TrEMBL record:
Gene3D superfamilies: 3.30.70.270. GO terms for molecular function: diguanylate cyclase activity. PROSITE patterns: GGDEF. This is diguanylate cyclase.
Length: 389
């Protein structure tokens, strides 16, 4: 991984280099962005292949015998129709498996075309210009492997997509075993492997830049914790997992008390310092599985998967006791906290769960600040009365 880091200097954090090898545990935001990019590029290549595959039939008509041209034209017609269908009917819904399917179809069409045309051309003894043009068909695998380089793929993904193309080259050679120039074949195959290696590095490099851009989008520039957009992605995913499995999921809204007065009296730089210190302190007291989000201004969200109300409130009490740093005049920074939990509050979606925590945070402020407000019996009675109205 250290050697790999040198190939993409300054773009990735250390814990993100594993993402270049395998798509396992990619952030949902990154997965959707990557899937959308892959499908868009599949459509672009499908359009180019659909047009160029049909147009090249005119060249074949000039240089090849009519019977050979006719058979090749039929193959080209089918391939062009397949490319056009891929262009028109590939859904771009941010689903990675849908992107895989589109890519597999994109590369399967010319790979099958290569094997079919290669076997067809093998039945003809061509000379001169016809022989020169027929050689061009043998370069199709090179074009396909080079085409992999425009996709932001991991090492594992690129190897999976390049393997069928290399296998097709071997199959074509096996069918022409007796007349094969083996030294030339070995050289071509070695070149294909080298191009595959270049495509691997190009795809991983693109993915590295995309990871860097996504990190900028999901991370708050000031504090380094998750931004609101990134936090929404995480919360939506955790809510979906907890809802399916029946697991607990707690969220807590933290709002710094009297933060506006810090900005007014000491300036925004002093306020920024307070926020940075607060985020560092809170992050240090959270578990590895917990997620801290800067929701906006001095408002933060803590997402706590597999956490009951009791354990969430205990953790938040410890956080309150530890404090959130100090103001420029060396007085303690305090926060009002509202906490909600999926199974107890029976939230219908993650936005409802968030709203409950937000309302409790405001109740904590109304009750005197620097405290935690969670689910209580009084609130349960009020909810029951509202439900009966």
């Amino acid at each position: 991984m250290v050697r790999l880091a040198d190939l993409i200097p300054g773009e990735l954090e250390y814990n993100e280099y594993n993402w270049l090898v395998s798509p396992y545990r990619h952030l949902g935001f990154l997965t959707r962005r990557r899937a959308s990019t892959i499908v868009n590029r599949v459509r672009l290549l499908a359009f180019l292949f659909a047009v160029l595959t049909a147009m090249w039939s005119g060249v074949d008509l000039i240089v090849f015998p009519f019977n050979l041209w006719f058979n090749l034209a039929l193959i080209r017609l089918v391939a062009s129709a397949a490319f056009a269908s891929l262009l028109l009917y590939s859904p771009n819904d941010g689903n990675l498996f849908g992107a895989y399917r589109a890519m597999a179809q994109l590369f399967a069409i010319p790979t099958i075309f290569f094997v079919a045309s290669y076997l067809l051309l093998g039945h003809y003894r061509l000379t001169g210009l016809s022989a020169a043009i027929s050689v061009g068909y043998a370069f199709l695998p090179f074009v396909l492997l080079a085409g992999l380089s425009i996709f932001p793929l991991t090492l594992v993904e690129t190897m999976c997509f390049s393997a069928p193309i290399l296998i097709a080259q071997i199959i074509a050679a096996v069918f022409r075993w007796t007349g094969m120039d083996w030294p030339s074949m070995a050289g071509e195959f070695w070149l294909l492997v080298l191009i595959s290696g270049v495509s691997v590095l190009a795809g991983m490099s693109q993915l590295g830049f995309m990871i860097g851009l996504v990190r900028q989008a999901v991370r708050d520039a000031l504090t380094g914790v998750f931004s609101r957009s990134g936090g929404e992605e995480v919360l939506e995913l955790q809510f979906s997992i907890a809802s399916r499995s029946g697991a607990k999921l707690a969220v807590a809204f933290l709002d710094l008390d009297h933060f506006k007065s810090i900005n007014d009296q000491y300036g925004h730089e002093a306020g920024d310092t307070v926020l940075v210190n607060m985020a560092r302190i809170v992050s240090r007291h959270l578990r590895r599985s917990d997620v801290l989000v800067r929701w906006g201004g001095e408002e933060f969200l803590v997402i706590m998967p597999d956490t009951s109300v009791m354990h969430a409130q205990a953790a938040l009490v410890r956080l309150l006791k530890a404090g959130f740093g100090v103001t420029p005049r060396n007085t303690p920074v305090t926060a009002s906290i509202g906490v909600a939990e999926l199974t107890v509050d029976k939230a219908s979606d993650w936005k409802s769960l968030l709203e409950i925590a937000d309302q409790r945070m405001y109740r904590a402020k109304q009750n005197g600040r620097a405290q935690i407000c969670g689910y209580d019996e009084k609130e349960r009675v009020e909810q029951a009365e509202l439900a009966m109205q």
